[in-house]
Design a protein that fits this description.
- It is a single chain.
- The protein has a single domain (about 1-75), classed as Alpha-Beta Plaits (2-Layer Sandwich), CATH 3.30.70.
- By secondary structure, it is of the alpha+beta class.
- It has helices at about 15-20, 50-60, and strands spanning about 1-5, 25-35, 40-50, 65, 70, 75.
Length: about 100
């Protein structure tokens, strides 16, 4: 079961997140999402539990738990939405390069 964990403290590590959930059952993975440019935590992450029953117990127990002064938001992760591919020359507005008129 894949679990979303939000409102994480900036100082929390992947292993800290894993330890929080390991109390409720085997954790397959725990990952805090990092900003690509700065490498800092984006304040949310995902935990994959080995089975659904343990995952549900963990969600019920950890949702609202206070860690480092922050109340965690925990729920079952939704599937990632597909986004249309980005174009390098997509500038919004009128579109296209202004030099293509001549």
């Amino acid at each position: 079961m894949n679990i979303y964990v939000g409102n994480l403290s900036w100082g929390l590590s992947d292993s800290d997140l894993e330890q929080i959930f390991a109390e409720y059952g085997p954790v397959k993975s725990a990952k805090i999402i990092q900003d690509r440019e700065t490498g800092r935590s984006r304040g949310f992450g995902f935990v994959e539990m080995a089975n659904e029953d343990d995952g549900r117990k963990a969600i019920d127990a950890v949702n609202g738990m206070e860690i480092d002064g922050r109340s965690l938001t925990v729920n079952e992760a939704r599937p990632r939405e597909e986004r249309p591919p980005r174009r390098d020359n997509d500038r919004g507005g009128r579109g296209g390069d202004r030099n293509d008129r001549w």
